[in-house]
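Hi C.,

You asked whether I'd gotten around to modeling the 155-residue construct. I have! Everything is below, sequence then structure, no commentary in between.
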Amino acid sequence: MYSVDHLRQLFEYNDWANRRMIVSLKENQSKRSLEILAHLLITEKEYFERLYGKDSAGFDFWPAMTIQECSALAKEIAGQYEMLLKRFDDEAIGLYVKYKTSEGVPYENTFREMLSHVLIHSSTHRGNIMLKLREEGFEPPKIDYIIYLRETKYV
């Protein structure tokens, strides 16, 4: 089970990987990849807001965004998750949150579960972007977790 310290590190990695994707998409213009990136980022934002009880009923998880808007949103949400995780300890991330899905269905999950979902969802869609970039003849960025550790942990 993820400790709050481990979640902090994973969210730092998530931000690092998102920023690498943004740089890549600025260089390699791929319409579909940009759509997936926008979805990934808006979902991170919406889940952050769900942590505070926001009702997601009717929310559009596939907005049209420019790469500049994605860049600004990535910076904003990385800061929000960083501040959130600074305030939490291992006990607090086990607390439950009530929220509604985009279909209006009520659910309840722990902070740990929802934060874990954000990370897994984002990782899945970065993989989708990488595949799409390769299909379009572009070289995707190297965003493996182990590369992040090599570049940040030992410097």
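If it helps when you're writing up: The first helix runs from residue 4 to 27.

Thanks,
B.
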